[in-house]
Specification:
Helix content: over 70%
Order of helices and strands: HHH
Radius of gyration: 16 Å
Largest sheet: none
Keywords: Membrane, Transmembrane, Transmembrane helix
Structural class: mainly alpha
Shape: flat
Amino acid sequence: MLTINVAVLLAVIVFFRLRRRTESRSRFDEKMTVVIVLALGILLAPTPVGQSILSFLGQLTSGVTQASR
């Protein structure tokens, strides 16, 4: 039996939705993309990949903050 990881499926959907031309998007289409990206973020957050992304972004923002001082 084939199992599909929901996070991977959402990442593929986001990839194809963001490849489309900007001019052809409606407001509903943009809102739907935002909802899908938020759902993807919620699914990735508790995983080890999500934690490593959070750690990387934390280090990046602290480096930028220290560089601006």
